[in-house]
Amino acid sequence: MKSKSTTTLSSREFNQDTGRAKKAALAGPVFITDRGRPAHVLLSFEEYQRLLGGATSIVDLLAMPELDDIEFAPPRAAGLSRLPDLT
User: Which CATH fold would you assign to the domain 7-54?
Assistant: First the structure.
């Protein structure tokens, strides 16, 4: 497993060079300090998703592509396909 490098930037350094922070986040977490204390962590989006543990959206969960071969034919509800009599 490839080890991740960590970078620490002060809030001032982060504000002055966000491009550097974004590049550093591709190699590992970037700790942003405020008055010398860790205040924020910048991660690449891929690393953030990995930390979430592959969480998926409700749409992905409902799609269930692995169950495509299951046949399902729900019965039609009676009376729902008729037009109402408006006379």
Answer: YefM-like fold (3.40.1620)
The owner of tokens 């799609």 is 63
Rounded Cα gap, residues 39 and 32, in angstroms: 6
Which DSSP string do the residues of 6-44 spell out, in sequence order?
Answer: -EEEEHHHHHH-HHHHHHHHHHS-EEEEETTEEEEEE--
pLDDT tens string 11-56: 999 999 999 999 999 999 999 999 999 999 999 999 988 888 766 6
**Residue written as token pair 């010398």:** 36
β-strand partners of 38: 33
> From CA 67, how far away is CA 3, in angstroms rounded?
37
Q: How far is CA 28 from CA 12, 49, 71, in A?
A: 20, 14, 46
- Listed by start position, the domains of the chain span 7-54
